[in-house]
Amino acid sequence: MSKDFITLADWSADELRAILRRARELKQLHHRGERPQTLEGRSLAMFFEKPSLRTHVTFEAGMTQLGGHAIWLRSEQVGIGTREAPGDVAANLSRWVDGIVARTFSHVLVEELAAVATIPVINGLTDLLHPCQVMADLQTIEEHRPLEEALVAYVGDGNNMANSLMLGAAVLGLHLRLATPESHQPVLRVRKRAEELAAASGARIEWSEDPAEAVRDADFVYTDVWTSMGQEEEQAMRREVFQAYQVNAALLRHAPKAFVMHCLPAHRGEEITDEVLDGERSIAFDQAENRLHAQKAILERLLGH
Ligand code: CP
Ligand code: NVA
């Protein structure tokens, strides 16, 4: 077991399954109005270099619901790398609180924090990975199909979501098809790591340039924005590159039974149409709901007594 939750590749299938089991249980308890106080007296520092709705609210509400407390640190307040070296920030926080959530541009920065911190560091999204989102996604998928039977098609940019989905699928043995332009495939080192993990788990991970081929008979069709946070200057170029990758009614005709997934926020009218995101096959808001429960399970695992 890793001290940190930075990449799903650091966790075994059994460990991730145990977190998902607990996430399911916590959701049931929550819906019954029960709030187990498993993190009583615990504190979590949350550091965000980028905007956030879901990650911020679900970590903060999750800590409160479990009897703990979260502290939101604005990045200009902390000044990591300008006011103070990342390692010094991590060393200070380690003396006061029980865990850190960090959302950064650079993935290396989260690794640097974790290298010095003596408390768990949780990746709340970097340019490279978004593992907490994928835990909520796996919980959502499992509400409809056993993971090892699920055929998931990801359509769009080979970004942090695609990278983390690949690693999650690889550890847990899912069948994942990715459709991205050749120029925007997931990064090579993540593809290689996913291949190694897939060889052990029996996962199937396939890539194609053709979205219709990727979604054919899929159980789940997943997409994410074409322009991620920090890439705003490339928006016009990206709209062109990804034009053929929109998840719309025409594409879904190739996957007549598929549920539609999106990590949100959505750029409606770009990677997904209103009709699809608001349609009856969309489970995007279930994914958002499950962020709360999946992360509470992660917090219990890392910060629990
Ligand atoms: N899906 C997700 O991480 O949402 P936020 O960027 O709002 O946290
Ligand atoms: N790829 C998106 C995910 C947002 C949750 C981004 O990084 O902006």
- For the record, the count of structural domains works out to 2
**Estimated helix fraction:** 40-55%
The percent range for strand residues is 5-15%
Overall average residue pLDDT: 97
CATH architecture of the largest domain: 3-Layer(aba) Sandwich
Largest sheet features: 5 strands, parallel
CATH superfamily of the largest domain: Aspartate/ornithine carbamoyltransferase
Q: How many distinct helices?
A: 13
Number of strands: 9
Q: Kindly report the oligomeric state of this protein.
A: single chain
H/E series, N to C? Answer: HEHEHHEHEHEHEHEHEHHEHH
Q: Structural class of the helices, strands and pairings?
A: alpha/beta
- Tell me the distance between the termini: 16 Å
**If you compute it from the alpha carbons, what radius of gyration comes out, rounded to the nearest whole angstrom?**
19 Å
CATH domain class of the largest domain? Alpha Beta
**Spatial order of strands in the largest sheet:** 7-6-5-8-9
Task: Indicate the overall shape.
Answer: globular
Present as ligands are: phosphoric acid mono(formamide)ester, norvaline
CATH fold naming of the largest domain? Rossmann fold
pLDDT < 50 stretches: none
Description:
With 305 residues, the chain is of the alpha/beta class. The chain folds into two domains: 136 residues, Aspartate/ornithine carbamoyltransferase (Rossmann fold, 3-Layer(aba) Sandwich), CATH 3.40.50; 138 residues, Aspartate/ornithine carbamoyltransferase (Rossmann fold, 3-Layer(aba) Sandwich). Helices cover 44% and strands 14% of the residues. A five-stranded parallel beta sheet has the order 7-6-5-8-9. A four-stranded parallel beta sheet has the order 2-1-3-4, with helices on both faces. Helix 2 links the parallel strand 1 and strand 2. Helix 1 packs across helix 6 and helix 1 packs across helix 13. It is globular and about 55 Å long. It starts with 12 loop residues before the first helix and ends with a helix. Bound molecules: phosphoric acid mono(formamide)ester and norvaline (NVA). The site of norvaline has 10 residues, from helix 7.
